[in-house]
Amino acid sequence: MKNTIQKTAIMNALMALDHPTADEVYECVHNEFPSISKATVYRILNRISEEGEILHLQIPDGADRFDTTLCAHHHLKCNKCGKVCDVDVPELDGIEKRIKEENGFSIGGYRLVFSGLCSDCIFKKSD
Amino acid sequence: MKNTIQKTAIMNALMALDHPTADEVYECVHNEFPSISKATVYRILNRISEEGEILHLQIPDGADRFDTTLCAHHHLKCNKCGKVCDVDVPELDGIEKRIKEENGFSIGGYRLVFSGLCSDCIFKKSD
DNA sequence: TCCTAATTGAGAACTGTTTTCGATTAGGAT
DNA sequence: ATCCTAATCGAAAACAGTTCTCAATTAGGA
Fold first, then answer.
1. Which one-letter DSSP state was computed for residue B44?
2. Which residues from chain B sit within 8 angstroms of residue A116, using beta carbons?
């Protein structure tokens, strides 16, 4: 993969943002590099997530998000403020083996997204 | 909710199909009822899933699917044949309580989709 | 410095879904 | 049975997120 200015700018944006969407990355990079195209942002995000440099998260009810934390694989998503944060779920350790034995299904990967209310939002009024 | 011909036809289609997408429901209903609109299919599927009559599943990398099985909440999705099937994951029983205590996050719901290869596809050639 | 495959920007295209709006209809009230 | 009206409908446009096309540019090895 060529080492373009665009890729560097996107990596920097990913470091600066927390679980950003492609559009949020675009907005951030666009500030310092107005000529960048949205297609380039999507292309580079896809490329580096395929290579395992970042995680590509599919969040229910919205745009995909990208995560520079490679070890924690599960997420909490607040339905009110929209914030996404990482969470460990050791309960699922070894689940691949059990499903393989019981269902014959070979798990390549999985994602778990909990939707709900974060501790900041839970006491706020409903509307 | 009014009891329209369209709703009845969609309920019948949901019974006949296995984890269909909205488009698959539309195709099925459209056969016996050619004048139905896709907007109506989406509207009715959303309505009855909000009322809890069916589950609305958000599957990675593709269209949402609908499930008439209300008790099993998790799914296996084969990346080769596209089939989606139900699976129990008792490992997650009580997870809401732990996450609430440790993170202060109040889980409203979650879905877990395992991607991989089903037992039929696992021995097939890659391409 | 040259060459070429990789990458880019702009915008069209695409997929899945929702919205708009005027026309139709279910089903309770009369 | 008929009327009334809110609920629903069909068609098509709008929408969001993402991918594709293609001509122009560029990184980086020869």
1. H
2. 105-109
Decide if pLDDT at A126 tops 60: no
The domain spans of chain B are: 5-67, 74-125
User: Which chain A residues 14-33 have CB under 7 A to strand D?
Assistant: 21-23
Decide if B70 touches A, using CB distance below 8 A.
no
Which whole-number Å values give the CA distances from B37 to A58, A76, B6, B15, B27, in the listed order? 29, 36, 9, 20, 10
Question: Tens of pLDDT along A68-97?
Answer: 999 888 999 999 899 999 999 999 999 999
- Closest C-alpha to B21, from B52, B42, B49, B48: B42
**Helix, strand, coil % (nearest 5) of chain B?**
40, 20, 40
Q: What element of type H or E holds A46?
A: helix A38-50
**What CATH topology corresponds to A5-67?**
Arc Repressor Mutant, subunit A (1.10.10)
Decide if pLDDT at B114 tops 90. yes
The enclosing H or E element of B67 equals strand B65-67
CA A21 – CA A24 distance, rounded (Å):
5
Looking at domain A74-125, its CATH superfamily turns out to be Ferric-uptake regulator, C-terminal dimerisarion domain (3.30.1490.190)
Predicted confidence (pLDDT) at residue B6 exceeds the cutoff of 60: yes
